[in-house]
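Late entry, adenosine monophosphate complex.
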Amino acid sequence: MKCRVCRAPAVVDVRRHNAGFCRDHFVRHCEEQVRRAVHDHHMFGPGDRVLVAVSGGKDSLALWDLLLGLGHHAEGLYLGLGIGGYSDESYGHAAAFARRRDATLHTVDLAADHGYTIPGAAAATRRSPCGACGLSKRHLFNSYALDHGFDVVATGHNLDDEAAVLLGNVLRWEEGYLGRQHPVLPASPGFVKKVKPLYRLGEREMAAYCVLQGIDYQVEECPMAAGNRHLGYKELLNDLELRSPGSKAAFLFGFVERAHARFAEDAAGQRDNLGTCRECGAPTPGEVCAFCRLRERARIAG
Ligand code: AMP
Ligand code: FES
Ligand code: ZN
Ligand code: ZN
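Prediction complete; structure with ligand written out below:
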């Protein structure tokens, strides 16, 4: 196969586009997809301070690299989840990347800063670790960005992640979740703006990007997430993609461009009329927010 642009030998093929790329033109292709996502959805501009949530995995490191390459002011935030060697190794990759690119990496550590870990929280609540993990991430990305003057939080969710979440939401017609599933969630009182600049790029593309750019990343999946529902949806979508290439992108982009707005209005209303958490000041419908309640339970149990 030859590069679609320059006809040199291709090193990566992107079946969805029925195209191969040489190294340089593949990197340009990734940059172009991010540039387009950022531009089309007004994610941020040159003067904005972007906080990239960096897990040490391929997606978030590729995202950070791409944003720096496009000239954005992007600092990283690593959240230590306390998942043993997996967390230590993940942090190592994030820190090594930051050193290499001379970029700023901020850290929040659940154990040191908040007195609990994800395995501890899962045991205390007897619920899936992913629930406690997702809640902690959402809360801490948001509060860190607000406390430190960032304009927007960017996460490394890619096309495969978003299509799998969309399939799950559609299968159960989760109207509220569908209304909030979008490459951009605007800011509202107590909530920073959140964006997903990689939603046009697939998992395979992000792995290829890191390899071609010499970025070392955490290859292991989180040991606590094994067998979770989204992994099953990803496999289903990959089977579908094999039979009809392009269907994953058509599913997700069609939703973003044509269906999301139908669910968005109801979801937006749910962010209004919130009070503030007695403990931490975050928006909440109750007296104490879900994060502070989780932290309290996990600390007592731990
Ligand atoms: P996941 O929820 O593991 O699929 O990760 C989705 C996105 O959340 C990643 O691409 C990162 O942007 C962010 N993220 C996940 N884990 C962490 C972490 N420990 N620290 C900072 N950001 C994270
Ligand atoms: Fe959240 Fe594993 S990364 S439970
Ligand atoms: Zn080329
Ligand atoms: Zn709180």
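Strands lie at 12-14, 19-21, 49-53, 73-80, 105-109, 152-154, 184-185, 193-195, 275-276, 283-284. Will revisit in the morning.
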